[in-house]
Amino acid sequence: MIPNSHTRRLDDNEFEKVKGSAPEVECCVGRGGVIAMSPLLLHASSKSENDAPRRVLHIEYADSLDLDGVRLAIA
User: Is residue 25 a contact partner of residue 48, using CB atoms and an 8 Å limit?
Assistant: First the structure.
């Protein structure tokens, strides 16, 4: 992940610049562990080394169901 990359919105050109020049930090977690982060943080996962499935639980908190004209789905 790239530290502090979640602090501003990046257009495509800025994204490429940050991706190519900012220092990357590797975050490792053992089996059954959790990494909690902002979903806006620039990040990537390495290829899986086996066929075991990976799981992602994405939670976003909002004070309203309406965000800039987009209505959140409630499941």
Answer: no
**If you search the block for the tokens 């066929």, which residue do you land on?**
51
Give the pLDDT confidence score for residue 75 in this predicted structure.
Answer: 58
Is 24:18 a contact under the CB 8 Å cutoff? no
Could you tell me which of 21, 33, 58, 29 has the C-alpha nearest to residue 46? Answer: 29
The residues with which 71 forms a beta bridge, in sequence order, are 66
Q: Mean of the per-residue pLDDT values for the chain?
A: 79
pTM: 0.52
The C-alpha atoms of residue 20 and residue 41 are separated, in whole angstroms, by 15
